[in-house]
Amino acid sequence: MKKQDRRTFIKSLAAGTAVAAFSGSIPVSCRGPKGKKQPNILFLFTDDQRFDTIGCLYGNQVITPNIDRLVRQGMAFTRAHIMGGTHGAVCMPSRAMLLCGRTLFHLEKQGAYIPKTHIILPEYLRQNGYKTFGTGKWHNGKKAFARCFDGGGKILFGGMSSHTDLPVYDFDPRGEYSREKQYRENTFSSELFSNEAVRFLEEYDSDEPFFLYVSYTAPHDPRMAPEEFTAMYNAEKIPLPENFMPEHPFDNGELDIRDENLAPHPRTPEVIREHIAGYYAMISHLDFFIGRVLEALERSGKADDTIIIFTGDNGLAVGQHGLLGKQNLYDHSVRVPLIFSGPGIPQNKTTEALCYLSDIYPTLCDFLGIPAPSSVAGSSLKDIIEGKAEKVRDRVFLAYRHLQRGLRTADNWKLIKYNVQGIETTQLYNLNDDPWEINNLANDFRLQPRLKELATLLHSDMEALDDFCSLNKLNWGITEGGNGR
Q1: Spatial separation of the C-alpha atoms in residues 417 and 203, rounded to whole Å
Q2: Is 356 found in the same domain as 270?
Q3: In this structure, what DSSP letter does residue 232 have?
Q4: Overall average pLDDT of the 61-76 stretch
């Protein structure tokens, strides 16, 4: 297929006739006869991308033709969650949970360090005959990276950075990433990491299956997409979310953190529209370069033999509930995109089954026919993908630092409890009627039995997950509801 340049791509978007770069067919068989080479794996991982920023799934203004193509040629989990974070940099524990398949309170040093007893996904695949290659963001320690990959390039150790001034490393087969070996790159991050992935696909000539891990830093701020992509979104015409608020209605414990100071308080419609437009532009720019990677996969002749996983490390408020960041338990911050496509994955399917990012690890093991390591706690989604089951869990547990705890059920009830300097706040939402989490029902006397039932489940999950830090700091009796603020 002829490669699209940026101008052609932008013009086609403007005309409403965009064609994604990726057009490879997806076979329906899972694996070939016994002894056939295992499928390749392409893992596309984005930073701060909210669940509802895929155009074809949610019908909003964000333009994502290449991610849309993955949806049509695969299966999307529309209720994928992170468990939360024990640190303001939520992506660090989130990425550790994905890479290790573990739960939040069973990480070491909040995910900044991964001990050898926690077997990392690419490390395990490497042990099982895969050639592994990593590029982009790695927020979980240099030693852990060295355990995982046979090759790599343009590796960013740590969290955020300017997208055009990145402190990166070349791959070191000895795993020695001293500060002296770091240098600066000025190519935009999404292009830089995609170029490394394309280079790998163009040069790979082994008969062994590969695991290609492409970890982007977009659409994390600073929101600085190139002009041709920012021009795609007119901030004056961007609709505000239904749950836009000038300020969060009470102190959630993190109103002064860095993310929340990216815009003045109180929030104004004009400023939030600018932030949303910039956020969408970053995602469309990222989508363009994801298309380049998918096009390279197709050119390589390996598309039909490759499982593709697309997901993000956490969501982002961008003006919802008076917030900008991800240090909260609302859906906009704890729900992420998750798409599987490739051999054995049905096409153009969606599921509302509740899942975590930590479920990806055992799911891949299940598809490859290898047992997940004993250090993995996630649940395989393979039966859901193959239509043999509708769910693997009845609820998801949510946590942020010692300040917030939450629960979402499969029938779409959500409880969030806060304890901020001894002040307790309770929120109860019926997400079937109120998906934007606007109407707090915690003080509705008719719902006190439901409130108490959910609080009991939340307390039980805290105990089961070894969440000891706040077990005795919340009022679990709930005889009068929450304070409803």
Answers
A1: 52
A2: yes
A3: T
A4: 97
